[in-house]
Design brief:
The protein has about 425 residues and is an alpha/beta fold. Helix content is about 40%, strand content about 15%. α1 (about 10-25) crosses α14, α5 (about 100-110) runs parallel beside α6 and α8 (about 195-205) crosses α9 (about 235-240). It binds pyridoxal-5'-phosphate. Pyridoxal-5'-phosphate (PLP) binds near residues 137 and 254. Pyridoxal-5'-phosphate binds near residues 182 and 259.
Amino acid sequence: MNNARGDKGLSKFEVDTEYQRLKSLGLTINMARGIPSPAQIQLSQALLSLSLGNDYMTADGVDSRNYGGQIGVLEARRLFAPMVGIPESQIVVGGNSSLAMMYECLAQAWRRGTPDSQVPWSQEPDGIAFICIVPGYDRHFAMCEDFGIRMISVPMLQDGPDMERVRSLVANDPSIKGIWCVPKYSNPTGTTYSPEVVEALASMPTAAADFRIFWDNAYAVHPLAEVDQPLADLYSRCEVHGHASRALIFASTSKMTLPGAGMAMFGASPANIDWWVKAAMLRSVGPDKVNQVRQVRFLKSIENIEYLMEQHRVLLKPKFDRVDQVFQERLGGLGIASWTRPAGGYFVSLQVQAGTAKRVVELASGVGLTFSSPGSCFPYGIDPDDSQLRLAPSYPELDELTLALEIIATCVIKASLDRQVAH
Ligand SMILES: Cc1ncc(COP(=O)(O)O)c(C=O)c1O
Protein backbone atom coordinates (compact mmCIF):
# COMPACT_ATOMS: atom_id res chain seq x y z
CA MET A 1 0.00 0.00 0.00
CA ASN A 2 1.15 3.45 -0.88
CA ASN A 3 -0.03 5.50 2.07
CA ALA A 4 -1.16 9.09 1.48
CA ARG A 5 0.80 11.52 3.67
CA GLY A 6 0.26 14.77 5.50
CA ASP A 7 -2.85 16.83 6.02
CA LYS A 8 -2.84 19.58 3.40
CA GLY A 9 -6.07 19.76 1.44
CA LEU A 10 -8.65 21.64 -0.59
CA SER A 11 -11.50 23.49 1.07
CA LYS A 12 -14.97 21.98 0.97
CA PHE A 13 -16.06 24.86 -1.27
CA GLU A 14 -13.30 24.12 -3.81
CA VAL A 15 -14.11 20.41 -3.85
CA ASP A 16 -17.85 21.00 -4.20
CA THR A 17 -17.20 23.43 -7.07
CA GLU A 18 -14.99 20.89 -8.83
CA TYR A 19 -17.62 18.19 -8.30
CA GLN A 20 -20.31 20.39 -9.86
CA ARG A 21 -18.01 21.14 -12.80
CA LEU A 22 -17.47 17.42 -13.41
CA LYS A 23 -21.20 16.82 -13.14
CA SER A 24 -21.90 19.48 -15.76
CA LEU A 25 -19.78 17.57 -18.30
CA GLY A 26 -22.59 15.01 -18.71
CA LEU A 27 -20.20 12.06 -18.81
CA THR A 28 -20.95 8.37 -19.20
CA ILE A 29 -17.91 6.27 -18.33
CA ASN A 30 -17.93 2.63 -17.31
CA MET A 31 -14.67 1.16 -16.07
CA ALA A 32 -16.08 -1.46 -13.74
CA ARG A 33 -14.95 -4.41 -15.79
CA GLY A 34 -11.52 -5.99 -15.35
CA ILE A 35 -11.25 -7.09 -18.94
CA PRO A 36 -8.62 -6.71 -21.66
CA SER A 37 -8.89 -3.65 -23.90
CA PRO A 38 -9.62 -3.94 -27.63
CA ALA A 39 -5.90 -3.34 -28.32
CA GLN A 40 -5.01 -6.32 -26.13
CA ILE A 41 -7.59 -8.52 -27.82
CA GLN A 42 -6.15 -7.47 -31.16
CA LEU A 43 -2.83 -9.12 -30.19
CA SER A 44 -4.56 -12.45 -30.75
CA GLN A 45 -6.50 -11.48 -33.85
CA ALA A 46 -4.58 -14.05 -35.91
CA LEU A 47 -6.38 -16.77 -33.97
CA LEU A 48 -9.60 -15.91 -35.79
CA SER A 49 -8.11 -16.79 -39.15
CA LEU A 50 -5.99 -19.68 -37.88
CA SER A 51 -7.53 -22.65 -39.60
CA LEU A 52 -6.48 -26.23 -38.99
CA GLY A 53 -7.24 -27.09 -42.62
CA ASN A 54 -6.31 -30.71 -43.11
CA ASP A 55 -3.90 -30.64 -40.19
CA TYR A 56 -6.43 -31.50 -37.48
CA MET A 57 -4.74 -34.43 -35.74
CA THR A 58 -3.49 -33.79 -32.20
CA ALA A 59 0.10 -34.37 -31.04
CA ASP A 60 -0.83 -37.89 -29.91
CA GLY A 61 -2.74 -38.78 -33.06
CA VAL A 62 -6.32 -38.01 -32.05
CA ASP A 63 -8.78 -36.55 -34.59
CA SER A 64 -9.55 -33.18 -32.96
CA ARG A 65 -12.79 -32.89 -34.92
CA ASN A 66 -14.42 -35.89 -33.33
CA TYR A 67 -15.97 -36.65 -29.96
CA GLY A 68 -13.87 -37.86 -27.03
CA GLY A 69 -10.65 -36.82 -25.37
CA GLN A 70 -12.23 -35.88 -22.07
CA ILE A 71 -8.94 -34.64 -20.56
CA GLY A 72 -8.14 -32.31 -23.46
CA VAL A 73 -5.46 -32.54 -26.14
CA LEU A 74 -1.93 -33.51 -25.18
CA GLU A 75 -0.27 -30.40 -26.60
CA ALA A 76 -2.56 -28.13 -24.56
CA ARG A 77 -1.89 -30.04 -21.34
CA ARG A 78 1.81 -29.91 -22.17
CA LEU A 79 1.67 -26.14 -22.70
CA PHE A 80 0.02 -25.46 -19.34
CA ALA A 81 2.21 -27.84 -17.31
CA PRO A 82 5.25 -25.56 -16.77
CA MET A 83 2.97 -22.57 -16.15
CA VAL A 84 1.27 -24.17 -13.15
CA GLY A 85 3.87 -26.67 -11.95
CA ILE A 86 2.00 -29.93 -12.36
CA PRO A 87 2.70 -32.86 -14.73
CA GLU A 88 0.82 -32.85 -18.03
CA SER A 89 -0.69 -36.25 -17.16
CA GLN A 90 -2.46 -34.56 -14.23
CA ILE A 91 -3.99 -31.72 -16.20
CA VAL A 92 -7.42 -31.56 -17.78
CA VAL A 93 -7.99 -28.89 -20.43
CA GLY A 94 -11.58 -27.90 -20.98
CA GLY A 95 -13.63 -25.05 -22.41
CA ASN A 96 -12.91 -21.33 -22.23
CA SER A 97 -13.61 -20.71 -18.55
CA SER A 98 -11.57 -21.74 -15.52
CA LEU A 99 -14.33 -20.32 -13.35
CA ALA A 100 -16.66 -22.95 -14.82
CA MET A 101 -14.14 -25.65 -13.84
CA MET A 102 -13.98 -24.29 -10.28
CA TYR A 103 -17.75 -24.31 -10.14
CA GLU A 104 -17.83 -27.87 -11.43
CA CYS A 105 -15.37 -29.02 -8.73
CA LEU A 106 -17.42 -27.36 -6.04
CA ALA A 107 -20.67 -28.76 -7.42
CA GLN A 108 -19.21 -32.26 -7.67
CA ALA A 109 -17.91 -32.15 -4.09
CA TRP A 110 -21.33 -30.85 -3.04
CA ARG A 111 -23.22 -33.62 -4.84
CA ARG A 112 -20.89 -36.59 -4.30
CA GLY A 113 -18.07 -35.49 -2.05
CA THR A 114 -14.39 -35.54 -3.03
CA PRO A 115 -12.47 -38.83 -3.27
CA ASP A 116 -11.57 -38.38 0.43
CA SER A 117 -15.01 -37.40 1.72
CA GLN A 118 -17.10 -39.56 4.05
CA VAL A 119 -20.29 -37.95 2.74
CA PRO A 120 -21.12 -35.38 0.03
CA TRP A 121 -20.41 -31.85 1.25
CA SER A 122 -24.13 -31.11 1.01
CA GLN A 123 -24.83 -33.89 3.55
CA GLU A 124 -22.52 -32.66 6.31
CA PRO A 125 -24.85 -32.29 9.30
CA ASP A 126 -23.55 -28.88 10.39
CA GLY A 127 -23.10 -27.45 6.89
CA ILE A 128 -19.67 -26.57 5.52
CA ALA A 129 -17.50 -23.47 5.40
CA PHE A 130 -14.79 -21.98 3.18
CA ILE A 131 -12.06 -19.54 4.09
CA CYS A 132 -12.25 -16.40 1.98
CA ILE A 133 -9.25 -14.11 1.83
CA VAL A 134 -10.36 -10.48 1.92
CA PRO A 135 -10.41 -8.42 -0.09
CA GLY A 136 -10.85 -11.15 -2.68
CA TYR A 137 -12.55 -12.20 -5.92
CA ASP A 138 -16.31 -11.62 -5.81
CA ARG A 139 -17.20 -14.59 -7.99
CA HIS A 140 -15.56 -17.07 -5.62
CA PHE A 141 -17.68 -15.67 -2.83
CA ALA A 142 -20.81 -15.62 -4.97
CA MET A 143 -20.34 -19.35 -5.67
CA CYS A 144 -20.18 -20.13 -1.95
CA GLU A 145 -23.24 -18.02 -1.33
CA ASP A 146 -25.08 -19.84 -4.10
CA PHE A 147 -24.36 -23.25 -2.52
CA GLY A 148 -25.12 -22.02 1.00
CA ILE A 149 -21.49 -22.52 2.04
CA ARG A 150 -20.60 -20.44 5.11
CA MET A 151 -17.79 -17.96 4.48
CA ILE A 152 -15.08 -17.09 6.97
CA SER A 153 -13.08 -13.97 6.14
CA VAL A 154 -9.34 -13.93 6.72
CA PRO A 155 -7.31 -10.83 5.88
CA MET A 156 -4.79 -10.65 3.08
CA LEU A 157 -1.37 -9.54 4.33
CA GLN A 158 1.69 -8.33 2.36
CA ASP A 159 2.80 -11.85 1.40
CA GLY A 160 -0.50 -13.72 1.23
CA PRO A 161 -3.26 -14.71 3.64
CA ASP A 162 -2.83 -14.30 7.40
CA MET A 163 -1.56 -17.86 7.84
CA GLU A 164 -1.66 -17.84 11.60
CA ARG A 165 -5.38 -17.31 11.39
CA VAL A 166 -5.86 -19.82 8.55
CA ARG A 167 -3.85 -22.47 10.38
CA SER A 168 -5.80 -22.20 13.60
CA LEU A 169 -9.16 -22.16 11.81
CA VAL A 170 -8.55 -25.25 9.67
CA ALA A 171 -6.87 -27.21 12.48
CA ASN A 172 -9.88 -26.93 14.77
CA ASP A 173 -12.98 -26.86 12.60
CA PRO A 174 -13.80 -29.97 10.51
CA SER A 175 -16.62 -28.10 8.77
CA ILE A 176 -14.03 -25.94 6.97
CA LYS A 177 -13.63 -27.78 3.67
CA GLY A 178 -11.76 -25.29 1.57
CA ILE A 179 -10.05 -22.01 0.91
CA TRP A 180 -10.13 -19.75 -2.13
CA CYS A 181 -6.71 -18.48 -3.23
CA VAL A 182 -5.63 -16.24 -6.11
CA PRO A 183 -1.96 -16.82 -5.37
CA LYS A 184 -0.29 -14.61 -7.95
CA TYR A 185 -1.04 -10.92 -8.58
CA SER A 186 -4.24 -11.57 -6.68
CA ASN A 187 -7.56 -9.98 -7.46
CA PRO A 188 -7.82 -7.24 -6.20
CA THR A 189 -4.67 -6.52 -4.13
CA GLY A 190 -2.02 -7.77 -6.59
CA THR A 191 -0.39 -9.87 -3.87
CA THR A 192 1.84 -12.83 -4.75
CA TYR A 193 2.04 -15.47 -2.04
CA SER A 194 5.52 -15.94 -0.55
CA PRO A 195 7.16 -19.39 -0.55
CA GLU A 196 6.56 -19.53 3.22
CA VAL A 197 2.83 -18.99 2.74
CA VAL A 198 2.65 -21.67 0.04
CA GLU A 199 4.58 -24.04 2.31
CA ALA A 200 2.24 -23.32 5.21
CA LEU A 201 -0.84 -23.98 3.06
CA ALA A 202 0.63 -27.26 1.79
CA SER A 203 1.78 -28.52 5.19
CA MET A 204 -0.89 -27.31 7.64
CA PRO A 205 -2.89 -29.94 9.49
CA THR A 206 -6.62 -29.72 8.75
CA ALA A 207 -9.47 -31.13 10.82
CA ALA A 208 -11.31 -31.99 7.58
CA ALA A 209 -9.67 -34.95 5.80
CA ASP A 210 -11.17 -33.75 2.51
CA PHE A 211 -9.92 -30.16 2.76
CA ARG A 212 -9.24 -28.50 -0.63
CA ILE A 213 -7.27 -25.45 -1.73
CA PHE A 214 -8.95 -23.85 -4.74
CA TRP A 215 -5.79 -22.39 -6.32
CA ASP A 216 -7.08 -19.95 -8.93
CA ASN A 217 -3.89 -19.04 -10.75
CA ALA A 218 -5.66 -16.69 -13.18
CA TYR A 219 -2.65 -14.36 -13.41
CA ALA A 220 0.15 -16.95 -13.66
CA VAL A 221 1.97 -15.16 -16.50
CA HIS A 222 0.65 -11.61 -16.15
CA PRO A 223 3.39 -9.32 -14.78
CA LEU A 224 3.18 -5.53 -14.99
CA ALA A 225 6.73 -5.06 -13.73
CA GLU A 226 9.62 -5.97 -16.02
CA VAL A 227 10.47 -8.98 -13.90
CA ASP A 228 7.79 -11.58 -13.21
CA GLN A 229 7.34 -12.60 -9.58
CA PRO A 230 7.93 -16.29 -8.91
CA LEU A 231 5.29 -18.43 -7.21
CA ALA A 232 6.17 -21.67 -5.41
CA ASP A 233 4.51 -24.83 -6.81
CA LEU A 234 1.64 -25.69 -4.52
CA TYR A 235 1.14 -29.18 -5.90
CA SER A 236 4.67 -30.45 -5.32
CA ARG A 237 4.72 -28.97 -1.82
CA CYS A 238 1.39 -30.67 -1.02
CA GLU A 239 2.78 -33.93 -2.37
CA VAL A 240 5.89 -33.65 -0.17
CA HIS A 241 3.68 -33.21 2.89
CA GLY A 242 1.45 -36.16 2.01
CA HIS A 243 -1.48 -33.95 0.98
CA ALA A 244 -1.35 -34.33 -2.81
CA SER A 245 -5.14 -34.27 -3.14
CA ARG A 246 -5.44 -31.00 -1.26
CA ALA A 247 -4.47 -28.86 -4.28
CA LEU A 248 -7.00 -28.04 -7.03
CA ILE A 249 -5.21 -25.84 -9.54
CA PHE A 250 -6.89 -23.67 -12.16
CA ALA A 251 -5.71 -21.36 -14.94
CA SER A 252 -6.82 -20.22 -18.37
CA THR A 253 -5.78 -18.35 -21.48
CA SER A 254 -8.59 -15.83 -20.93
CA LYS A 255 -6.21 -12.90 -20.43
CA MET A 256 -3.61 -14.20 -22.88
CA THR A 257 -5.64 -14.73 -26.05
CA LEU A 258 -9.41 -14.27 -26.42
CA PRO A 259 -11.27 -14.22 -23.09
CA GLY A 260 -14.45 -15.56 -24.60
CA ALA A 261 -12.83 -18.18 -26.78
CA GLY A 262 -9.72 -19.53 -25.10
CA MET A 263 -9.09 -22.64 -23.02
CA ALA A 264 -9.01 -23.36 -19.31
CA MET A 265 -7.30 -26.03 -17.23
CA PHE A 266 -7.68 -27.95 -14.02
CA GLY A 267 -4.66 -29.70 -12.48
CA ALA A 268 -4.68 -32.01 -9.46
CA SER A 269 -3.63 -35.39 -8.02
CA PRO A 270 -4.40 -38.52 -10.10
CA ALA A 271 -7.27 -39.35 -7.70
CA ASN A 272 -8.81 -35.91 -8.17
CA ILE A 273 -8.38 -36.09 -11.95
CA ASP A 274 -10.17 -39.47 -12.08
CA TRP A 275 -12.93 -37.98 -9.93
CA TRP A 276 -13.23 -35.03 -12.32
CA VAL A 277 -13.28 -37.16 -15.46
CA LYS A 278 -16.01 -39.46 -14.13
CA ALA A 279 -18.25 -36.43 -13.55
CA ALA A 280 -17.26 -34.73 -16.80
CA MET A 281 -18.30 -37.82 -18.77
CA LEU A 282 -21.84 -37.41 -17.47
CA ARG A 283 -22.26 -33.94 -18.88
CA SER A 284 -20.23 -33.95 -22.10
CA VAL A 285 -18.79 -36.30 -24.70
CA GLY A 286 -15.63 -34.24 -24.77
CA PRO A 287 -14.35 -30.66 -24.96
CA ASP A 288 -13.76 -28.49 -28.04
CA LYS A 289 -10.46 -30.02 -29.13
CA VAL A 290 -10.33 -28.06 -32.39
CA ASN A 291 -10.10 -24.83 -30.42
CA GLN A 292 -7.50 -26.33 -28.09
CA VAL A 293 -5.31 -27.26 -31.06
CA ARG A 294 -5.78 -23.76 -32.54
CA GLN A 295 -4.85 -22.12 -29.24
CA VAL A 296 -1.68 -24.19 -28.94
CA ARG A 297 -0.65 -23.52 -32.54
CA PHE A 298 -1.10 -19.82 -31.86
CA LEU A 299 0.62 -19.78 -28.46
CA LYS A 300 3.32 -22.28 -29.53
CA SER A 301 5.50 -22.45 -26.41
CA ILE A 302 5.99 -21.02 -22.95
CA GLU A 303 8.66 -18.70 -24.40
CA ASN A 304 6.22 -17.41 -27.00
CA ILE A 305 3.57 -16.92 -24.30
CA GLU A 306 6.06 -14.78 -22.39
CA TYR A 307 6.60 -12.74 -25.56
CA LEU A 308 2.84 -12.27 -26.02
CA MET A 309 2.42 -11.33 -22.36
CA GLU A 310 5.16 -8.73 -22.74
CA GLN A 311 3.02 -7.11 -25.45
CA HIS A 312 0.07 -7.12 -23.05
CA ARG A 313 2.31 -5.61 -20.40
CA VAL A 314 3.37 -2.77 -22.69
CA LEU A 315 -0.30 -1.88 -23.20
CA LEU A 316 -1.30 -2.26 -19.54
CA LYS A 317 1.64 -0.73 -17.68
CA PRO A 318 0.99 2.94 -18.64
CA LYS A 319 -2.56 2.59 -17.34
CA PHE A 320 -1.45 1.31 -13.95
CA ASP A 321 1.25 4.01 -13.84
CA ARG A 322 -1.44 6.58 -14.55
CA VAL A 323 -3.50 5.37 -11.58
CA ASP A 324 -0.56 5.92 -9.27
CA GLN A 325 0.32 9.26 -10.85
CA VAL A 326 -3.17 10.78 -10.63
CA PHE A 327 -3.77 9.47 -7.12
CA GLN A 328 -0.36 10.76 -5.98
CA GLU A 329 -1.15 14.18 -7.43
CA ARG A 330 -4.69 14.39 -6.11
CA LEU A 331 -4.75 12.26 -2.98
CA GLY A 332 -1.09 12.05 -1.91
CA GLY A 333 -0.51 13.92 1.31
CA LEU A 334 -4.15 14.06 2.34
CA GLY A 335 -4.05 11.08 4.67
CA ILE A 336 -7.46 9.86 3.49
CA ALA A 337 -6.59 7.16 0.95
CA SER A 338 -4.04 4.51 0.07
CA TRP A 339 -3.80 2.28 -2.96
CA THR A 340 -1.85 -0.71 -4.23
CA ARG A 341 0.83 -0.52 -6.93
CA PRO A 342 0.56 -4.06 -8.26
CA ALA A 343 3.47 -5.79 -9.99
CA GLY A 344 1.02 -7.82 -12.06
CA GLY A 345 -2.59 -8.77 -12.67
CA TYR A 346 -5.53 -6.56 -13.49
CA PHE A 347 -6.56 -4.58 -10.43
CA VAL A 348 -5.75 -1.80 -8.01
CA SER A 349 -7.22 -1.90 -4.52
CA LEU A 350 -8.13 1.54 -3.22
CA GLN A 351 -8.55 2.04 0.50
CA VAL A 352 -10.56 5.10 1.48
CA GLN A 353 -11.65 6.45 4.87
CA ALA A 354 -13.83 4.02 6.81
CA GLY A 355 -17.49 4.64 6.17
CA THR A 356 -16.99 6.42 2.83
CA ALA A 357 -16.53 3.75 0.12
CA LYS A 358 -20.23 3.47 -0.73
CA ARG A 359 -20.54 7.24 -0.78
CA VAL A 360 -17.54 7.56 -3.15
CA VAL A 361 -19.21 5.19 -5.61
CA GLU A 362 -22.51 7.05 -5.28
CA LEU A 363 -20.83 10.40 -5.90
CA ALA A 364 -18.99 9.03 -8.94
CA SER A 365 -22.22 7.66 -10.29
CA GLY A 366 -23.73 11.16 -9.93
CA VAL A 367 -21.06 12.37 -12.36
CA GLY A 368 -21.69 9.51 -14.78
CA LEU A 369 -18.82 7.22 -13.75
CA THR A 370 -19.36 3.56 -12.87
CA PHE A 371 -16.14 2.06 -11.55
CA SER A 372 -16.66 -0.27 -8.59
CA SER A 373 -19.25 -2.09 -6.50
CA PRO A 374 -18.60 -1.30 -2.86
CA GLY A 375 -18.37 -4.45 -0.75
CA SER A 376 -17.97 -6.73 -3.76
CA CYS A 377 -14.53 -7.96 -2.62
CA PHE A 378 -16.02 -9.31 0.63
CA PRO A 379 -18.29 -12.28 1.39
CA TYR A 380 -22.00 -11.45 1.06
CA GLY A 381 -20.98 -8.11 -0.51
CA ILE A 382 -20.42 -6.56 2.90
CA ASP A 383 -17.24 -4.61 3.58
CA PRO A 384 -17.35 -4.27 7.38
CA ASP A 385 -15.41 -0.98 7.27
CA ASP A 386 -17.00 0.36 4.09
CA SER A 387 -13.51 1.40 3.00
CA GLN A 388 -12.29 -0.77 0.10
CA LEU A 389 -12.86 -0.26 -3.62
CA ARG A 390 -11.58 -2.27 -6.59
CA LEU A 391 -10.32 -0.43 -9.66
CA ALA A 392 -9.94 -2.03 -13.07
CA PRO A 393 -7.76 0.22 -15.28
CA SER A 394 -7.25 -2.23 -18.18
CA TYR A 395 -10.16 -1.41 -20.49
CA PRO A 396 -10.43 2.39 -20.96
CA GLU A 397 -8.08 4.40 -23.15
CA LEU A 398 -5.57 6.55 -21.23
CA ASP A 399 -7.48 9.84 -21.67
CA GLU A 400 -10.73 8.38 -20.42
CA LEU A 401 -8.94 6.57 -17.62
CA THR A 402 -7.26 9.81 -16.51
CA LEU A 403 -10.59 11.61 -16.36
CA ALA A 404 -12.12 8.71 -14.44
CA LEU A 405 -9.26 8.75 -11.92
CA GLU A 406 -9.63 12.49 -11.42
CA ILE A 407 -13.33 11.99 -10.77
CA ILE A 408 -12.60 9.19 -8.29
CA ALA A 409 -10.05 11.34 -6.47
CA THR A 410 -12.51 14.25 -6.25
CA CYS A 411 -15.21 11.92 -4.95
CA VAL A 412 -12.84 10.41 -2.35
CA ILE A 413 -12.01 13.91 -1.08
CA LYS A 414 -15.64 15.07 -1.19
CA ALA A 415 -16.91 11.97 0.66
CA SER A 416 -14.29 12.49 3.32
CA LEU A 417 -15.04 16.21 3.76
CA ASP A 418 -18.82 15.61 3.77
CA ARG A 419 -18.30 13.02 6.49
CA GLN A 420 -16.23 15.42 8.57
CA VAL A 421 -18.98 18.02 8.31
CA ALA A 422 -21.66 15.46 9.22
CA HIS A 423 -19.76 14.33 12.34
C1 LIG B 1 -9.15 -14.35 -10.01
C2 LIG B 1 -9.91 -14.68 -11.25
N1 LIG B 1 -10.23 -15.95 -11.52
C3 LIG B 1 -10.91 -16.29 -12.62
C4 LIG B 1 -11.33 -15.33 -13.52
C5 LIG B 1 -12.08 -15.76 -14.73
O1 LIG B 1 -11.34 -16.73 -15.39
P1 LIG B 1 -11.91 -17.48 -16.68
O2 LIG B 1 -12.06 -16.51 -17.76
O3 LIG B 1 -10.86 -18.53 -16.97
O4 LIG B 1 -13.22 -18.13 -16.29
C6 LIG B 1 -11.02 -13.98 -13.28
C7 LIG B 1 -11.47 -12.94 -14.19
O5 LIG B 1 -11.42 -11.77 -13.92
C8 LIG B 1 -10.29 -13.65 -12.12
O6 LIG B 1 -9.97 -12.38 -11.82
